Amino acid sequence: MSKRDKLLQKLKNNPTNAKFETIQSLLLYFGFKERVPKGGSSHYTYIYKGIIITIPKHKPVKTIYIKKVLALLEELNLIEKE
């Protein structure tokens, strides 16, 4: 099992207290394009084949955003569904 697979499994089992950088690296690994916020915003936008997801850069990332990322990755068949 690769390091990335272990990380995904950890996030699926306990989607709390994840670092923004962890979510960021996962999305970039799977081919999402990152749009950096302008001005005073702290929300990063990720785009993949016309699908947009926005993640606020807070420490830690809230559980709801982690669940949304995992659900989106499953829906796009980028990771296995459980």
Overview of the structural elements:
The protein is an alpha+beta fold and 82 residues long. The protein has a single domain (3-75), classed as Metal Transport, Frataxin, Chain A, CATH 3.30.920. The chain has three helices and three strands, in the order H-H-E-E-E-H. The chain has a three-stranded antiparallel β-sheet with strand order 1-2-3, with helices on one face. Strand 1 and strand 2 form a beta hairpin.
Q: What's a concise summary of this model?
A:
With 82 residues, this protein is α+β, with helices and mostly antiparallel strands. Helices cover 41% and strands 18% of the residues. It is built from three helices and three strands.
- Major beta-sheet overview: 3 strands, antiparallel
| Number of domains as seen in the coordinates | 1
- The strand count comes to 3
End-to-end Cα distance: 16 Å
Q: Give the C-alpha Rg.
A: 12 Å
How do the strands line up in the largest sheet?
1-2-3
Q: Supply the CATH architecture.
A: 2-Layer Sandwich
The CATH topology turns out to be: Metal Transport, Frataxin, Chain A
User: What is the CATH level 1 assignment?
Assistant: Alpha Beta
